[in-house]
Amino acid sequence: MKMRLIRLTxxxxxxxxxxxxxxxxxxxxxxxxxxxxxxxxxxxxxxxxQKGYYADEGLEVELQYGYESDFVSLAAQGTNEFAIASGDxxxxxxxxxxxxxxxxxxxQRYPVGLVIPASKNISTVADLKGKRVGLPGFxxxxxxxxxxxxxxxxxxxxxxxxxxxxxxQAAAVKQDLVDAAMVYIVNEPIQLRAExxxxxxxxxxxxxxxxxxxxxxxxxxxxxxxxxxxxMVRATLRGLIYAVEHPDEAFAVSxxxxxxxxxxxxxxxRDVLNASIALWKTDTYGISKRKSWQESVDFMRKTGLLSxxxxxxxxxxxxxxxxx
Length: 324
What we know:
D-Maltodextrin-Binding Protein, domain 2; five-stranded mixed β-sheet
């Protein structure tokens, strides 16, 4: 009787182990290109990973870091399933014939702006005439943001000396190599203030309402497996909303995901998270607004950034949005 009980116990343990293995291996592996480097700005994704929101949807999500334009191409080609992309990158991709669609809004405001030392006599974009403006390069969100600022405020770019300074905006501003620099408003301004330099920021979103960062998917996957897309959006939105509503926990989760955050840098990184949350918060999570897409396309067309016309309603799709 005792041996039979032992065998039954061992059998149940074996079944439990096999069940756990089957559950783990049944998760759909997803490659998700998020650009940049590990950062507290990706707190919603870390939450969806660590709290099991992706697993609840049957997904095992691998976050990949790098260049946004590369991940847009990989998602369009079907090599990766999903990517984080700004509206302008989607518009550029579609104008070049890449089959990709924006399916979930994340940032409610374009996260780029002009950082200016308070000692400079520059309060508006018009004050930049005759000044030096630094850009990381003539590509990406900071370049698009610069073009958008000039376009929206009718600034003649020929009256400004625009310099390529690499991703060294904070150092260039501190060393007076430029009078102002295009930056991500949740990064360099916070870093400079933490180092004791007083700065002001002119945000792109105060002049023009460009579509900002969100979730994108290749059209083939969107058409062939809409349920997968819906599950990915649902889990990602769940992490986003949780991060906004629980900033302390969002920061704690981020520190687990990013061991490079030390006690010395934690305060600054928490400020970065707080500033990011201010850009995410909304009453309509995930939803794209056609008016913003129209404004973005009009600006890019009129400034010569588009090589071919695009159809507004093919750029985004709200059908996968259902907030948790």
